[in-house]
Design a protein that fits this description.
The complex is a heterodimer of chains A (419) and B (359). By secondary structure, chain A is α+β, with helices and mostly antiparallel strands. Chain A is built from nine helices and 15 strands. Chain A has two domains: 190 residues, Aldehyde Oxidoreductase, domain 4; 139 residues, Aldehyde Oxidoreductase, domain 4. Chain A has a four-stranded mixed beta sheet with strand order 1-9-10-13. The longest helix of chain A is centred in the N-terminal third of the chain and has 28 residues. The C terminus of chain A is likely disordered. The radius of gyration of chain B is 20 Å and the shape is globular. Helix content of chain B is 28%, strand content 18%. The C terminus of chain B is likely disordered. Classes of the chains: A alpha+beta (419), B alpha+beta (359). Chains A and B meet through helix 8 of A and helix 11 and helix 12 of B.
């Protein structure tokens, strides 16, 4: 990304008023623990097949524009060798579908995707068994591809997808399957160890080029280069849309979005009122404010992701505010340490610098906080087992109260919960 | 969802009929042209007219006529899109073309009219809020009670921007007003009581956020006449957060007539959106007889920007808006001088980008 943007050739070398900034970030792909504590899966997918060859997938995940429906269909289609057109979806209706915890935490592709693969693999096993018996092909030679189920060593020998489903239904009765997903147990056993773990982490690096007007300090973002480690791109158009949407959202935060209060005169009212009470004052960029975005995907499949995929919904917005701040510094030599980075703040920092003070706008110090002693945890490489050497072994309040799950109940054998 | 208060709707067929309804109904009647400012304001209860007199069916109020002497007559109900896309306006009065094409968004420009923009309500962060928000701060001077704007009368109520002020400081937010003032345009007003009168655009405005229009409530603004450009140049620079669509929070409308040798023969410069009316800069006189050099422009910009005393009731900090006024005053004149866009800086590019988005 440094190469693509020409960062080394530009940084510190552009004409006055122009500059580039670089920033990196990382983000989680779904939380390791559900938002309300329980031992149930975080998501579920149910598949229904009928003798027409139709596949219907039910899942509570809600497509709010990010394209999760496409991901659901793609996962299932991939397992069966079908296309996304062959999968019918019923999503987002909690009265009909298995529960999915929702579109937050950049979790849907990874969790729903894994659940969909599990459900599809289970159904595939049923269908494969029936086809194997019917055509006398060993199971390990069966291939599901191109809308057919066939012998790898004799591709002409096989059944259409519909006939394969019919064989499955003939052998097993009405076909259906379920899949669900729950992140791997969190190995951290120290205090606070339940916060932040995730099945997979994405990484982003971005470069922003800006121009700052020397008279007014008006700021214009010229171009954004952004590289995102997505694990695997499942749909290039949707993934790119998510990155560009994140850049847009991040630029809004970096450049103009603000929610501040002001106090009315004390002798008349003293009330605190919103300075930006409506969307007229709360400015977001529009398409016309969007600079060109050059998106680069780094595909390094993650073992925990469905076909290696990780999040792309939120991570790419994180580098934008520091990137813009760094680019402003390169362009005009002052630092703005709070968002939004507005012309007024840049102008104040420039004025300060011209008058012998530090060219810096923002909080002058960090609030004094009395931190408790840090937990000391050895890494796995150092032989750590997830406990902190300076903490007493802890039990949850629930466990301390004597509560125990029945030995055969779901979740009773969850790793990391010690009785 | 905010809904309009109930009102009677009168679709006038002629200017005479509209004037007659206004005369009969008195100040509780309001004119409806594009409605892009009035209707949202009604939903938020800034205005609660009992009668709306629609001008949609009035013939002859829409269109641009360029006379033999080179002057342009623009019907008040011409939409901003009509004007933004008008090739002869763009050629002769580029400043006007840019001013109207910088107003709102393409969708709004397709409905909003020139007359509506000239008469657009003044704006203030404490005023342009919904009814509940304004109620929570006990309303303000401009809208002192639940029934919205007092009609050009001083009433009780606080100005939250300048609490000790006896007047309202809501900001003139018209883009066409400053530019037409700089071009020396006139408007025609018609009423039942006074007949037809033609006044300069500069006489249309009063310096008070409430009594910001000198047009009487029973008068219709029917047309705008722009004198022949006769080779004079014009430019409009508008400050706003977003180049795509925002109200002006400071603007410069400049009109300059240069002699063949480059000396300024005549010049008018008007600041918009820094107070409750478009503000003429008499300092333009110091440019007369001089060439538009960096020095003369800087001297003019320094002096004229002293007029801009914006208050903290719009987007951006007031102090920065004032600082920007100087850069904009200089920038608009440099554009008129013919400076290359690339040398005018990032803000100039933004100012011009807005204008390139026509429609």
């Amino acid at each position: 990304m440094v190469k693509r943007s020409g960062f080394r050739e530009k940084w510190g070398k552009m004409p006055p008023g122009r500059g580039v900034g670089l920033a990196c970030s990382t983000y989680l792909t779904g939380a390791g623990h559900p938002i309300y504590w329980n031992d149930l899966p975080h998501t579920g997918v149910q598949l229904q097949f009928d003798r027409s060859g139709a596949v219907v997938a039910f899942c509570g995940a809600t497509d709010c524009g990010q394209g999760s429906d496409d991901v659901l269909a793609a996962m299932i289609a991939e397992v069966f060798g079908l296309t996304t057109n062959d999968i019918r979806l019923v999503t987002g209706d909690t009265g009909i579908t298995p529960v999915d915890l929702g579109s937050y935490s950049s979790r849907v592709t990874l969790m729903m995707g894994n659940a969909a693969i599990q459900a599809a693999e289970r159904a595939k096993a049923l269908i494969a068994e029936a086809v194997s018996k019917k055509l006398e092909i060993p199971l390990d030679r069966l291939v599901f591809a191109g809308g057919r189920v066939f012998d790898a060593s004799d591709p002409a020998k096989g059944l259409t997808w519909q006939d394969a489903v019919i064989q499955g239904e003939a052998m097993h009765g009405t076909l259906g399957s379920t899949g669900s997903y729950k992140p791997p147990a969190v190995p951290a056993k120290y205090k606070g160890g339940g916060v932040g773990p995730s099945p997979a982490y994405s990484f982003t690096a971005a470069v922003v080029e800006v121009e700052v007007d020397k008279d007014t300090c008006f700021l214009d973002v010229k171009k954004v280069w952004i590289a995102h480690d997505i694990g695997r791109v499942l749909n290039p158009v949707l993934a790119r849309g998510q990155v560009e949407g994140s850049v847009y959202m991040g630029l809004g935060e970096a450049l103009m979005e603000e929610s501040a209060f002001r106090r009315l005169p004390a002798n008349l009212s003293g009330a605190l009122v919103h300075k930006q009470p409506s969307m007229l004052e709360y400015k977001s960029p529009t398409t016309l404010e969007m600079p060109e975005v050059d998106t680069i995907f780094i595909e390094d499949p993650d073992p925990n992701g469905p076909y290696g995929a990780k999040e792309v919904g939120q991570g790419p917005l994180l580098p934008m505010p520091p990137c813009v701040a760094n680019a402003v510094y390169d362009a005009i030599g002052v630092r703005v340490d709070e968002s939004p980075i507005t012309p007024e703040k840049i102008a104040k920092a420039v004025w300060d610098k011209e008058h012998g003070r530090e060219g810096r706008f923002g909080p002058k110090d960090f609030p004094v906080i009395e931190w408790p002693e840090a937990s000391k945890v050895k890494t796995p490489a150092e032989g750590g087992d997830g406990t902190a050497s300076n903490e007493k072994p802890r039990k949850s309040k629930l466990m301390a109260s004597g509560f125990r799950l029945a030995p055969d109940s779901p979740g009773a054998k969850v790793e990391g919960v010690r009785s | 969802m905010m809904r309009c208060p109930s009102f009677r709707y009168h679709a006038a067929k002629s200017v005479k009929e509209a004037a007659s309804v206004l005369a009969d109904e008195g100040p509780k009647a309001m004119l409806l042209a594009g409605g892009t400012d009035l209707v949202p304001n009604m939903k938020r209860r800034q205005h609660m007219p009992a009668v709306l007199v629609s001008l949609r069916k009035v013939k002859g109020l829409r269109g641009v006529k360029i006379a033999k002497d080179g002057s342009a007559t623009i019907g008040a109900c011409s939409t901003l899109a009509d004007l933004a896309l008008h090739p002869r306006l763009a050629k002769g009065w580029p400043g006007l073309s840019r001013a109207v094409s910088s107003i709102a968004s393409p969708l709004i420009r397709a409905a909003a009219t020139l007359g509506g923009n000239l008469c657009v309500d003044t704006r203030c962060n404490y005023y342009n809020q919904n009814h509940e928000w304004r109620e929570s701060i006990s309303f303000c001077m401009k809208a002192p009670g639940p029934h919205g704007t007092a009609i050009q009368e001083k009433t009780h109520g606080t100005c939250w921007v300048a609490p000790s002020s006896p007047r309202c400081w809501a900001v003139s937010s018209t883009d066409s007003g400053p530019m037409l003032m700089a071009l020396g345009a006139t408007v025609t007003l018609e009423s039942k009581a006074r007949g037809v009168r033609e006044i300069p655009v500069s006489a249309l405005y009063g310096d008070d956020g409430m009594a910001f229009l000198k047009k009487m409530p029973d008068e219709l603004l029917t047309q705008v006449r722009v004198p022949a450009h006769a080779g004079a140049k014009s430019a409009y620079w508008k400050l706003r957060r977003r180049g795509s669509f925002d109200f002006p929070v400071m603007s410069v409308a400049a009109w300059v007539k240069l002699a063949p040798g480059g000396e300024v023969e005549d010049a008018r410069v008007v600041l918009g959106a820094v107070t409750s009316r478009p503000l003429d800069c008499p300092e333009a006189a110091i440019l007369l007889g001089r060439k538009l050099t960096d020095e003369s422009i800087a001297e003019f910009a320094e002096k004229a920007s002293a007029h801009a005393r914006p208050l903290d009731n719009t987007d951006f900090q007031a102090a920065w808006r004032k600082k920007t006024a100087r850069a904009f005053l200089a920038g608009a004149l440099k554009e008129i001088r013919g400076d290359d866009k690339a040398t005018l800086g990032v803000l100039a590019q933004r100012v011009m980008q807005g204008a390139s988005c026509l429609g």
